[in-house]
Amino acid sequence: MFNEIDLDKIDIDSGPPIEEPARQYYFIAKCREWVRRFCENYGRCPTASIQTFGCQMNARDSEKLLGILRQAGYDITEEESADFVLFNTCTVRDNANQRVYGRLGELKSLKKQNPAMKIALCGCMMQEPTVIEKLRASYRFVDLIFGTHNIFRFAELLCRTYEEQGMIVDIWEDTEQIVEDLPVERKYPFKSGINIMFGCNNFCSYCIVPYVRGRERSREPEDILREIRQLAAQGVAEVMLLGQNVNSYGRNLKKPINFAGLLREVEKIEGVERIRFMTSHPKDLSDELIEVMKESGKICRHLHLPLQSGSNRILERMNRRYTKEQYLALAQKIRQEIPDIAITTDIIVGFPGETMEDVEDTIDVIRQVRYDNAFTFIYSKRTGTPAAAMPDQVPEEQVREGFDRVLKVVQDTAREQVARYQGQVAKVLVEEINDHDESLLTGRMSNNTLVHFPGSPELIGRIVPVALEKCQGFYYMGRLLLETDG
Ligand code: SAH
Ligand code: SF4
Ligand code: F3S
After folding, report:
1. Residues with Cβ within 6 A of ligand 3?
2. pLDDT of residue 163
3. 198: Cβ below 6 Å to ligand 1?
4. What pLDDT, on the 0 to 100 scale, is given for residue 4?
5. Per-residue pLDDT at 3
6. pLDDT, tens digit, for every residue of 66-81?
7. Long-range contact list for 184-189, CB < 8 A, 24+ apart?
8. Cα(62) to centroid of ligand 3, in Å?
9. What is the rounded distance in angstroms from the CA atom of residue 3 to the CA atom of residue 394?
10. Residues 307-318 as b or e (16 or more Cβ within 10 Å = b)
11. Could you count the other beta carbons within 10 Å of the beta carbon of residue 132?
């Protein structure tokens, strides 16, 4: 386990070990030497920053990368003008890519002012050959590029950037390996994401994730539970189990266990007060999972259940493997069994061949399910996916119109759903000081709704009772109750 490793005892004068994670500790120790020399020469330690694009998986990966930089001795900063800058990229939609290119342009001028600066790129976008070609041709100032499959080798690659000249590119096509017990630096002391699986096997026809994250691999339940026990001992009250499709957890493991079974085990861990998970594919959501959620005192009253489209014709072309009717029946069953649950979703507008009639089907589902929140995306063509080759791409104007219509209905229903608890008392996990008003705290209800209320920062990380006084659209203004009031 990482906590037990003494980096100063590693002999960096002999060669690196072959096995992981020992090999990476060796390189962390080696980087430390380099950092020590930098501090001596410059009278300050080198700074490092990571910018994260994309989803919760990437956010978790960045915590692991940050853990390595911290152990190597870097001063971690949020500033982009650091001595080591790493962009952890996303490529799920084209605008994510464009943002990376834009920010890289800014880094180029910063590097001119600080020639010792190292620029590194990793994450999903790097798994696309066309991106690598473009970077090699037009972004020669980038020092290090690696992908999603060899992220556990970061310490080793970091060392190489100081030993070799020129752009280092190391991209793997796939991996079977899951390397445990590398250092992590968490963003929040009281809540944490935990990977339970990597990759995706679903190949929804619009989606690039299976191509850039590889095949589905589940972590061993013992490793997951050990990590969560450790987090709980460190004061983590809320865990979020992460996977592209948590409902298929365990399928490739030798010892049979499914997601519901894993949740039962997590529930038993003392100190864990809240359990969340992302994402549930509707086609694999079992009755057993609904049962476990219903009986649980810890699993949060929130289910993210991506719809993508409400039209059967489009769902089939998307390769989602459920129909509008099946989705509606599932949502109804969940609402019946767990009436206080908040259901949220993802919707894509403008998938090839989509007509306004299809959009109406989507709107019909939104009205029937009554989502607490829905992320609505404009379809983005991803090279290499089956949908990119479909002939009937939808004209921009029609997409806009459909998008605006969907958004309006989503907002109207969400506003009503969120307001259901006005006047009641909710348990709120206090997360931070409010962004706009320092006298307020911001916390989250079990159903994921945000609540702002006056209170002192010492409450951050605690679960407290709050009276939900006024619903303001998508969040509440509240009043803290003394524990005895709750
Ligand atoms: N594994 C998760 C989703 C991961 S991607 C799931 O299956 O639900 C997050 C969301 O991005 C998806 O739910 C989808 O709504 C959206 N998305 C994925 N590919 C997209 C594309 N090509 N264009 C627009 N939105 C897309
Ligand atoms: Fe993409 Fe579908 Fe896999 Fe989600 S389930 S990551 S949308 S292919
Ligand atoms: Fe983006 Fe990769 Fe997540 S493409 S959405 S960061 S899995």
Report:
1. 54-55, 57-58, 90-92, 124, 209, 212-213
2. 92
3. no
4. 63
5. 62
6. 999 999 999 999 988 8
7. 184/63, 184/64, 184/66, 184/67, 185/63, 185/66, 185/67, 185/70, 185/76, 186/63, 186/236, 187/59, 187/63, 188/431, 188/461, 189/234, 189/235, 189/236, 189/461
8. 12
9. 53
10. bbbbbbebbebb
11. 17
pLDDT number for residue 486:
45
Among the listed residues 271, 265, 256, the one whose alpha carbon sits nearest the alpha carbon of residue 296: 265
Residue 439 · residue 409 · CB < 8 Å: no
* CA angle in degrees (0–180, nearest 5) for 150-156-157: 70
For ligand 1, say whether the CB of 377 is within 6 Å of any of its atoms: yes
| Ligand 3 centroid to residue 469 C-alpha, Å | 37
**Cα-to-centroid distance, 435 and ligand 3 (Å):** 26
Closest CA to 307 of 355, 368, 250, 260: 368
Tell me how far apart the alpha carbons of residues 172 and 384 are, in angstroms, rounded to a whole number.
18
Residue type for 28, please? I
Q: Which residue carries 């348990």 as its tokens?
A: 427
Most ligand 3 atoms within 8 A of CB, residue of 56, 88, 89, 90 to mutate: 90
Write out the E strands in 93-221.
Answer: 118-123, 144-146, 168-170, 191-195, 197-198, 217-218
310 Cα to the center of ligand 1, angstroms: 15
Beta strands in 288-383 (DSSP E): 302-304, 342-349, 373-378
Regions of the chain short of the pLDDT cut 50 = 486
pLDDT given for residue 286 in this prediction: 97
Instruction: Count CA atoms closer than 13 A to 452's CA, side-chain side.
Output: 15
Does the C-beta of 207 come closer than 6 Å to ligand 1? yes
Ligand 2 pocket residue status of 303, Cβ below 6 Å: no
Cα separation, 402 vs 265, whole angstroms = 43
Q: Whose CA is nearest to atom 3 of ligand 1?
A: 244
Whole-number Å distance, alpha carbon 311 to ligand 3 midpoint, is 25
Q: pLDDT for 129-154, tens place per residue?
A: 999 999 999 999 999 999 999 999 99
Q: Report the amino acid identity of residue 197.
A: M
- Ligand 1 lined by 246 (C-beta under 6 Å): no
Sign of CA dihedral 21, 173, 214, 102: positive
**How far, in Å, is the centroid of ligand 3 from the Cα of 96?**
9
Rounded to the nearest angstrom, the distance between the alpha carbon of 92 and the centre of ligand 2 is 10
User: How many angstroms separate the Cα of 124 from the Cα of each of 183, 203, 214?
Assistant: 21, 16, 10
* Nearest residue (CA) to ligand 2, atom 4: 244
pLDDT in tens, 333-386: 999 999 999 999 999 999 999 999 999 999 999 999 999 999 999 999 999 999
